[in-house]
């Protein structure tokens, strides 16, 4: 039987897109406490099936697919620009295909405005009316209101009519930035993208006997299996260490390891990879908010995904992407690297930021290990000494030196020069993921 938390999530999924949701309403319909309803609604928001808007409330939205991740809903737009809804609340769940800046003559503006778009415009009443009539939403800038006639038209067409105190071009920049951030998020691989689902996973029940472990070991070649109770909630893990030397007729719950490490579908690939190396484990169970087994993620799944990510073209750039793109081999020496300090790498004082400094050291160390065919690194610790500030447009020479390297670890000394002056020094300890 599903828990109250699961019942609430299932109930929310049955609601129509655009339906307004409240804690009190959910608590009353499903006969649960308001605290339980609140936590379930927050979980639904994390899963991307509801959105909360100030002065409007929480509404049911369609969960975004990975291929449409860069598109924003009107509900997200209103939060981005800190605006208010004047009309057409029932359309807030809809997705905008493009936005148009209304800084042109009316006839020219309407050539670009079409159904599913968003017109960003100031206090131009005729433009508001024509855009909504064409099936477009409207965002009024400068803090202006709309006429009652246009509010009614927006309600009838179920197209959001919104207002913000920001000016038109600031709003356009904010929405552009949000779309760019979505593109970066789109590239992040989560456990939910790679894990083996529940119906294809190997696991054991608490009352099964140890001989079952040997059967699963032969079928899967894994040595770790989640242990679940009668409601299929994860309560333990059983490994080869737990089984060896034990009577095969013993029940699993007598020898399993309790309170195991679990991850959720929204856990990032990078975190799981780091944890598997750190803990030295080959399989991690995937659970939902109520600890119910959703599947497993294996070391093979993680390594395959990491290799695939490295082959993908980048769309939205992070600081690490900028560092990686600008870092080049220093002439013929493939173990030393150089980089020019760009404006994006600096702090408010116009000098190289500490975060970028450490990213440069990490990237140079990673390339050194690849040169020696040691594999990818997971940083365990990094001690950095910032000796001198580095001005914008400086050309840095980064010299990593491999001091020690074992099968699963490495120690690297890093020196950073600006011209002939040493500006920084670091000592990096890393664990290795063999390619």
Automatic annotation (TrEMBL):
It comes from Virgibacillus siamensis. It holds the Pfam family 4HBT. Residues 256-314 form the CBS domain. SUPFAM superfamilies: CBS-domain pair, HprK N-terminal domain-like, Thioesterase/thiol ester dehydrase-isomerase, Winged helix' DNA-binding domain. The keyword Metal-binding does not apply. The lineage of its organism: Bacteria, Bacillati, Bacillota, Bacilli, Bacillales. This is CBS domain-containing protein. Keywords: CBS domain.
């Amino acid at each position: 039987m599903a828990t109250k938390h699961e019942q609430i999530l299932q109930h929310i999924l049955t609601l129509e897109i655009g339906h307004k949701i409240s804690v009190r309403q959910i608590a009353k319909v499903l006969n649960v406490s308001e605290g339980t309803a609140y936590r379930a609604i927050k979980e639904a928001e994390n899963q991307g099936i509801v959105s909360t808007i100030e002065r409007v409330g929480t509404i049911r939205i369609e969960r975004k697919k990975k291929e449409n991740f860069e598109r924003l809903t009107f509900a997200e737009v209103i939060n981005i620009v800190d605006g208010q809804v004047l009309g057409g609340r029932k359309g807030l769940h809809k997705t905008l295909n493009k936005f148009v800046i209304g800084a042109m003559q009316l006839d020219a503006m309407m050539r670009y405005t079409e159904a599913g778009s968003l017109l960003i415009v100031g206090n131009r009443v005729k433009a508001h009316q024509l855009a909504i009539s064409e099936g477009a939403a409207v965002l009024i800038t400068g803090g202006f209101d709309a006429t009652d006639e246009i509010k009614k038209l927006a309600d009838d067409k179920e197209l959001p009519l919104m207002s913000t105190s920001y000016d038109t071009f600031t709003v356009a920049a904010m929405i552009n930035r949000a779309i760019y951030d979505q593109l970066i998020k789109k590239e992040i691989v989560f456990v939910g993208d790679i894990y083996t689902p529940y119906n294809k996973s190997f696991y054991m029940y608490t009352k099964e006997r140890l001989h079952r472990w040997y059967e699963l070991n032969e079928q899967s070649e894994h040595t770790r299996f989640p242990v679940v109770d009668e409601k299929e909630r994860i309560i333990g893990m059983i490994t080869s260490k737990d089984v060896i030397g034990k009577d095969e007729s013993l029940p699993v719950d007598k020898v399993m390891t309790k309170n195991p490490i679990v991850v959720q579908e929204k856990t990032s690939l990078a975190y799981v990879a780091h944890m598997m190396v750190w803990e030295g484990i080959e399989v991690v169970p995937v659970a939902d908010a109520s600890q119910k087994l959703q599947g497993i993620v294996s070391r093979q799944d993680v390594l395959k995904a990491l290799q695939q990510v490295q082959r993908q073209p980048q769309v939205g750039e992070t600081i690490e992407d900028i560092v990686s793109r600008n870092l080049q081999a220093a002439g013929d020496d493939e173990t030393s690297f150089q980089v020019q300090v760009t404006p994006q790498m600096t702090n408010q004082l116009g000098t190289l930021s500490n975060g970028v400094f450490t990213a440069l050291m990490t990237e140079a160390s990673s390339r050194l290990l690849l040169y020696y065919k040691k594999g990818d690194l997971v940083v365990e610790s990094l001690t950095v000494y910032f000796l001198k500030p580095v001005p914008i447009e400086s050309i840095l020479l980064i010299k990593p030196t491999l001091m020690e390297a074992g099968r699963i670890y490495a120690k690297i000394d890093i020196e950073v020069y600006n011209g002939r002056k040493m500006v920084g020094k670091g000592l990096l300890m890393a664990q290795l993921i063999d390619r």
